[in-house]
Automatic annotation (TrEMBL):
PANTHER family: BIOFILM ARCHITECTURE MAINTENANCE PROTEIN MBAA, DIGUANYLATE CYCLASE DGCP. The chain crosses the membrane at residues 25-43, 55-74, 94-114. Keywords: Membrane, Transmembrane, Transmembrane helix. InterPro entries: Biofilm_reg_signaling, EAL_dom, EAL_sf, GGDEF_dom, Nucleotide_cyclase, PAS, PAS-like_dom_sf, Rev_trsase/Diguanyl_cyclase. It comes from Sphingomonas paucimobilis NBRC 13935. Residues 278-408 form the GGDEF domain. Residues 417-667 form the EAL domain. This is DNA, contig: SP630.
Length: 672
């Protein structure tokens, strides 16, 4: 606008010389010419400041001058010949002075305008530089000619380059040589980066790339082309984020305690092998008696034992195998081996895991059972896991510390077992159980002194099922407490209707004996039926005593103090220990039927039978012989001094049709 005003002033001053020469002046035309010229000058200024071609900007300036002059002249009319008029006409000196003043004003305006534009550009440049320097990312701008035009301090920091080592205007090669020198790049890397960067300068689209640096740091480079000018490269140090991400991913796929893979990692490994249709086998490993280690020595020792077992497994497997902890005391191995070789390897694991180990001064004897299954085409990871679990269950049922491979018959057995489990659930809810009572005779008096309650169950499809079959399944299914509670309550209900001199004996499994609810079940049953506690006797096996001797001893002592009787069942067949008879409060020893059966023909069995009866008498407990099926066996038991007998010769187990229909005495000729 200053330039436009100056040009218009020059035009007006020049025409003022004609004011007294018949000259008519058009204010409107002059105003329009000045406005149009000024607009063209503003357009010229804008183009000049935006790097528009110089020829075009020059033409704009000339056009502005012509617009002001010629448009203004178009409105001026000279009506009379020119004449030199002295007097009112402006003197040449005044015209020169006005012209000079106008030129000066125009020059000052132009200088001021240029100065302001320069200051504005400098402020914009400083602002841009401050923004670039404040960026958390390193930045580099390279023009189309392949020269470095801009960078910031963050870039120098990321690439360990001092400020004085780098300057703008250098070529890509010089720029990279400087970086390579301070970063100690290998020549091959320098060449590769150079080729890539020269290609990036001409990139048509933006892209990101993650770069692993030689010092372990991770940078994300973003390439952003600038139209017709070059390319901007930014570098973001994401080392901390990637480390955190890797840590989260590690914990998502590994067990914290043992650093083995977890269930999720195992499933992903199997899925990858299944996708590739590769032959492999799955080994499921369960540590034997691990719960006892935790209960006896504490969870700290248990954790260290798990770590030890994980290290043993790691030392046994090859690089192509994968070891995982499934949870608790269960681990797994995925091996690229057919089932035959995998089973042989599993036997080696069983042997190695059975070696004694000392942890914090405690000598432990770990062991494991293993189930092995091989993947077959069409089999899912979940189905393979179920097969290995079936093989593991079979190994544990066979006696632990062994490895079994999956057989198709196991699936059939599982279906049958599940059928039994479902039936047990229904029986518990709907009263599907029955009790049979087998008489026990007192040899001294020849009369029935009590009955043993024996659980019977008729499956709706499979018919009568032996307790030897369904009791272990009930224990595994977690139903034994409910079933045991029913047996105790039902036996006491029948006992309440019998003669006061009779007692009833009920069998208590190892799982029941380990339950805190057993004492409550016993007490509730006798109280509900108005019975004296000594009329209820519980029978336990020697096997139940060895699971947790300290806990069992304490529980048996409490049972004795409440007045209940305790019998040691099947004596001589389990892991017998005379210390059990010495330390625990037994009222009766029930000698296993196998000794009675063989006593007449096997001197050793006879010796054991006589010694057990004598031991019972010395300890002040009742010596009770089981399995008396003939009169000769009854006579033998009387001869060696047995106190009580039980067996088919005395009476078979019977399910009472009515509550009061139970006989109280056996026939005289059976015990005579």
């Amino acid at each position: 606008m200053t330039a436009g005003f100056g040009i218009w002033c020059m035009h007006a001053v020049g025409l003022s010389a004609l004011m007294d020469c018949g000259h008519q002046f058009s204010t409107m035309t002059n105003l329009i010419g000045g406005l149009i010229g000024t607009a063209i000058l503003i357009n010229w200024q804008i183009r000049r400041s935006s790097n528009f071609p110089r020829l075009a900007t020059s033409i704009s300036f000339v056009g502005a001058v012509c617009a002001i002059h010629f448009i203004s002249l178009a409105g001026d009319v000279v009506t009379a010949p020119l004449a030199i008029v002295h007097g009112s006409a402006m003197s040449p000196g005044l015209v020169a002075a006005c012209t000079a003043f106008a030129v000066l004003i125009a020059c000052l305006g132009g200088v001021l305008s240029a100065s302001q534009a320069r200051l504005r550009r400098e402020r914009e440049a400083q602002t841009l530089k401050a923004v670039i320097e404040s960026m958390s990312d390193g930045l580099v701008f390279i023009d189309k000619a392949g020269r470095l035009r801009q960078y910031n301090r963050r870039f120098l920091t990321l690439f360990d380059t001092p400020p004085e080592a780098l300057r703008t205007g250098v070529t890509i090669d010089t720029f990279l040589d400087t970086i390579a020198r301070y970063r100690n790049w290998h020549p091959d890397k320098r060449t590769l980066v150079g080729q890539s960067m020269k290609a990036w300068v001409h990139a048509a689209e933006s892209f990101d790339r993650e770069c692993e640096m030689e010092d372990g740091r991770t940078y994300v480079m973003q390439c952003r082309p600038v139209t017709e000018q070059g390319v901007v490269l930014t570098f973001n140090d994401v080392t901390v984020e990637r480390q955190a991400s890797r840590k989260l991913s590690y914990h998502a796929h590994h067990d914290v305690l043992t650093n083995l893979g977890n269930r999720r990692a195992l499933q992903e490994r199997m899925a990858a092998l299944i996708d590739k249709a590769k032959t492999f086998s799955l080994l499921l490993i369960d540590l034997d008696e691990f719960k006892e280690v935790n209960d006896t020595f504490g969870h700290g020792i248990g954790d260290k034992l798990l770590i030890h077992c994980a290290e043993v497994l790691h030392g046994l497997v090859g690089p192509d195998s994968f070891v995982a902890r499934m949870g608790g005391d269960e681990m797994a191995i995925v091996m690229a081996l057919p089932i035959g070789q995998a089973t042989t390897f599993a036997q080696t694991v069983v042997t190695q895991m059975s070696n004694a180990v000392t942890i914090d001064g405690y000598r432990l004897l770990p062991g494991c059972s293993i189930g092995v299954a091989e993947w077959e085409a069409g089999l899912s990871g979940e189905e393979l896991m179920r097969r290995a679990d079936l093989a593991l269950y079979d190994a544990k049922r066979a006696g632990r510390r062994r490895a079994h491979r999956y057989e198709h018959a196991m699936t059939e057995a599982l279906l049958k077992r599940q059928e039994i489990v479902d039936g047990l659930h229904d029986a518990v809810k709907g009263g599907g159980f029955r009790l049979a009572f087998q008489p026990i005779a007192d040899l001294a008096s020849g009369i029935t002194c009590g009955y043993e309650a024996l659980l019977r169950w008729q499956h709706p499809v499979r018919g009568w099922i032996s307790p030897d079959v369904f009791i272990p399944i009930a224990e595994d299914a977690g139903l034994i407490d409910e079933i045991g509670r029913w047996v105790i309550a039902e036996a006491c209900r029948h006992l309440a209707g019998w003669s006061p001199h009779l007692y009833v004996a009920v069998n208590v499994s190892a799982a029941q004996l380990a339950s805190d609810a057993l004492l409550d079940h016993l007490a509730q049953a006798v109280i509900a039926n108005g019975l004296a506690a000594e009329r209820l006797e519980i029978e336990i096996t020697e096997t139940a005593l060895i699971r947790d001797p300290v806990k069992v001893a304490g529980r048996l002592e409490r049972i004795c103090k409440l007045g209940f009787k305790i019998a040691l069942d099947d004596f001589g067949t389990g892991q017998s220990s005379l210390s059990h008879l010495r330390d625990l409060c037994f009222d009766r020893i029930k000698i296993d039927r196998s000794f009675v059966l063989r006593a007449a023909s096997d001197p050793r069995s006879m010796a054991v039978l006589r010694a057990t009866v004598a031991l019972g008498h010395e300890l002040g407990v009742i010596a009770h012989a089981e399995g008396v099926e003939t009169s000769d066996q009854l006579a033998l038991c009387r001869e060696i001094g047995c106190d009580a007998v039980q067996g088919y010769h005395i009476g078979r187990p019977l399910i009472p049709l009515v509550d009061m229909g139970m006989p109280h005495y056996v026939h005289a000729d059976r015990v005579a």
